[in-house]
Give the backbone structure.
Amino acid sequence: MTVSSTKISDICLIAGKIMLVNGGETYRVEDTMSRIAKAFGYANAHSFVTPTGIIFALEDSEATKFVRISERTVNLEKVTLVNSISRQIAEGTLSVEEAIQHLDEIDNTPHSYSIPLRIIASGLVSACFLIMFLGQWKDFVPAFIAGSIGFTCFIYFHKVIKIQFFAEFLASFVIGTLAYWMVHLGVGAQMDKIIIGSVMPLVPGLLITNAVRDLMAGHLVSGLSKGAEAFLTAFAIGSGVAVVFTIY
């Protein structure tokens, strides 16, 4: 049975969108889409991926499709699942209908971890980073509190204000304020270590890594744009803390 090019394009675009939205590198997205198309008989599929959109076309199809990416997050489990599906398609163990069904299920699956669990994890990460940066054990609990509340504020502000820069700026401002008052009241000892540990969950580590890997793979547009986004995030975090030091 001949499979329509429209369905093949849909599978490739859904897979690419899931990977790009959830933290996949640009070159990995393009490679996955090309492998899926090749497995279904289209050896020369063409794709152009940026952090904000995907353009895709099959060699024998006149239609070129575009998917807009307006919001991105980090969920590497979904990236891994899409990679697994692409391998099954390449091995010929998944039909077109089954592939679409599995990809839709992955796309519609909510985040693997609940918000309360992510907040607690952020607090633990903050406290552990404080110890790693040679902070005092006395500041373990203050760093946990500041990191948890700061990440909670980030999630809330990001829902209210869709511009991520302001959410990160306000969250780091809250962290800096909490650290100052905890040290001022005698609960904490080293304000700088508390702030450094608490802002670590906000640091764009994956974004910086993907930017470097995309640049090394020759995807200059994506690499530079992700690098600029990482710079703005770092600038927002630093600005929020700087405002606290300016006020107090």
